[in-house]
Design a protein that fits this description.
heterodimer; A: 297 residues; 16 helices; 72% helix; 0% strand; disordered N terminus; B: two-stranded antiparallel ribbon
């Protein structure tokens, strides 16, 4: 019921009681800034290392800004490894999967949230129960299935199962749809609008925040997904960036060696840039969506 | 089925459908994708998986029914017990730390902080980029001699441990990484904090409650639904840890980071003991289920829903 009220207004309401002493505020900012600093150093270190020449990498104390920025680290690996291909594979898988799953999720969630069909409650409970099922349990039969169809070493096993909606997403979306008033759909039904019309013209336009949340979560999941391509893909021409990066890392000697850490960190950083870009683009809807749906969580 | 087809012109057709029947058809049509998924990838695959766990099979040459032999062999396998303790260590270490840490950050950020958006992004970003890239990054951050972590500790006068090269410190290193990527919890806490009605704080202050009391008597109880949700999701996720140990340590040193899913992967997809691997999956499922049921059962005692409090 407090939903929609912004943070500042809540605090204005109880302004008298918040940590008001200057000293308290200083400590507060010190703690969160120190925390933020610690949290961001790994990523900063990655950027710094990606621009270093080999002899600078294991310097003690650490050199944060190399005197000479080595951009070659960002250029050479593209020739050594088909990173462009890895990228294309990842983008193809991630974008297709995310687009399709958003459509199926929203249709399924609409069914559960809006259409009072028989057995809805029980089926929804079953859906919640499937969230507990670790994917490892079904991994082996699923592998058997795809290998019988001779589709191992293709994109099918990585893509098709994703398209059939996901319990967690449906749950989140349904919670969101439940917060939308039913007055509009009832009026629309009286006017002879079909269920699909209500979904398309009333619910979908209102669900941008939750679609933002699920878009970024699914984008991130598919982009980072490692175990599924690891199991199904042998041909390196089909590798997504996650497997390609792993291959690159083992070729660099892996483990303890630092000599080629510059190129490795450069490519690692490049591999997550689209992810971060997607996050920043969807951020506005994303935070809003989590705030709205999270309350009922 | 015949009725469903003729349902296109219900008023005129002989098999006119009742309004409820048409609602049912519409409902099931909308949820068809999930039903397909449930029948094949959830229920179907589960039954097949349970079946496979009773066979000794590599899918190609052998397919022998051996009853519960995979399970008895599993319980006599020291590697399995090792993976069980390693995974339990991770779950029991990472989940409470991540939950408390992200709660503290959320409480701080909720104090009318300037640039809250910036802080939120900084704390949340690691959880978005998790995966191979982060695993590779941490492998080098934790390098004992020149890695950033030990250089930082040296500044504080602490001689850092050997982390991934030490059987004692490899798992704590993984826990550290888990906490670093726990930003999702924080975001949900922030959302939960915004949902606490402000009049509760007013009333408490009038009654003379100080900040400490207000936290324990209002904020924390009102946040229990969010804590509950985060706890379940985190526990389920923690037991499935794989990418980190596969990429960073390959289960070593001396199997000290051999998690259950890594063992499952090796047995199944590297050694082709699919029956044995399925048995591991079922033990994992049972454990996750057990914890989830325990938390759900106990929730009545510690999760408060605002509606009930007001009642």
């Amino acid at each position: 019921m407090i939903r929609g009220q912004s943070l500042p207004s809540i605090h204005r309401g109880r302004g008298r009681y918040r940590v008001e002493h200057i000293s308290g505020r200083v400590v507060l900012y010190l703690v969160i800034t120190a925390g933020a600093f610690i949290f961001s150093t790994p990523l900063l270190w990655m950027i710094s290392t990606s621009l270093k020449s080999p002899e600078l990498i294991n310097r003690i104390p650490i050199v944060w800004i190399p005197p000479e920025l080595r951009w070659a680290n960002y250029i050479d690996p593209w020739v050594e490894m088909p990173f462009l291909l890895f990228y294309w594979n990842t983008i193809f898988i991630t974008v297709t999967n995310t687009a399709i799953i958003l459509i199926t999720n929203s249709l399924v969630a609409f069914g559960f949230a809006r259409i009072p069909f028989k057995g809805r409650t029980i089926i929804f409970f079953v859906l919640l129960a499937t969230m507990m099922l670790p994917p490892q349990v079904t991994m082996i039969p699923t592998y058997l299935f795809w290998s019988r169809l001779r589709l191992v070493n293709t994109f099918w096993p990585i893509m098709a199962p994703e398209w059939l909606s996901a319990a967690y997403d449906v749950f989140l979306m349904r919670q969101f749809y439940m917060t939308i008033s039913t007055d509009l759909d009832e009026a629309a039904r009286i006017d002879g609008c079909s269920w699909f019309g209500i979904y398309r013209h009333i619910i979908l336009p209102l669900s941008k925040p939750v679609i933002g949340v699920l878009a970024i979560l699914n984008f991130s999941f598919n982009w980072n997904n490692f175990i599924t391509p690891l199991i199904y893909l042998n041909d390196s021409r089909l590798f997504p960036i996650a497997l390609g990066l792993r291959l690159f890392e083992t070729q660099m000697g892996g483990g303890d060696t630092y000599v080629r850490l510059g190129p490795l960190m450069a490519m690692t950083l490049v591999s997550i840039i689209p992810l971060m870009a997607a996050f920043f683009i969807a951020q506005r809807y994303f935070i809003q969506g989590i705030v709205i749906t999270g309350i009922k969580g | 089925m015949a009725q469903a087809v003729s349902g296109n012109s219900p008023a005129r057709g002989r098999f006119a459908l009742s309004p409820q029947a048409r609602i049912n058809i519409a409902g099931y049509l909308f949820i068809t994708p999930w039903i397909l998924k449930f029948l094949t990838l959830n229920a179907g695959a589960m039954i097949v998986s349970l079946g496979i766990s009773l066979f000794k099979t590599d899918f190609f040459t052998t397919f022998d029914f051996i009853g519960f032999d995979n399970y008895t062999r599993l319980f006599r396998d020291p590697l399995f017990w090792k993976s069980l303790t390693v995974t339990a260590y991770y779950a029991f270490g990472m989940v409470p730390l991540a939950l408390v840490f992200s709660l503290v950050i959320a409480l701080f950020l909720n104090q009318n902080v300037k640039f809250q958006g910036v802080y939120r992004v900084v704390y949340y970003l690691p959880s978005i980029v998790s995966g191979v890239a982060v695993a590779i990054l941490w492998k080098y951050l934790l390098q004992p001699r020149w890695g950033l972590i030990n250089q930082g500790l040296a500044l504080l006068g602490i001689e850092g441990p050997k982390w991934l090269f030490s059987t004692t410190w490899a798992m704590p290193a993984f826990i550290l990484m888990g906490v670093w990527a726990a930003g999702g919890n924080m975001l949900l806490y922030l959302a939960g904090l915004q949902g606490i009605p402000t009049d509760l704080y007013h009333a408490a202050s009038i009654d003379g409650a100080n900040a400490w009391h207000r936290f324990w008597r209002i904020t924390l109880p009102m946040l229990t639904p969010t804590i509950y949700f985060n706890l379940i999701i985190s526990i389920i996720g923690a037991w499935q840890i794989f990418t980190q140990s596969y990429i960073i340590t390959a289960g070593g040193p001396d199997n000290s980071t051999l998690t259950m899913v890594l063992l499952l992967y090796r047995k199944g997809f590297q050694q082709f003991h699919f029956g044995y691997a399925s048995a591991i999956a079922w033990v994992l499922f049972t454990i996750v289920m057990l914890f989830t049921v325990l938390i759900v059962r106990s929730s009545e005692a510690w999760v408060f829903y605002a509606g009930e409090v007001r009642g």
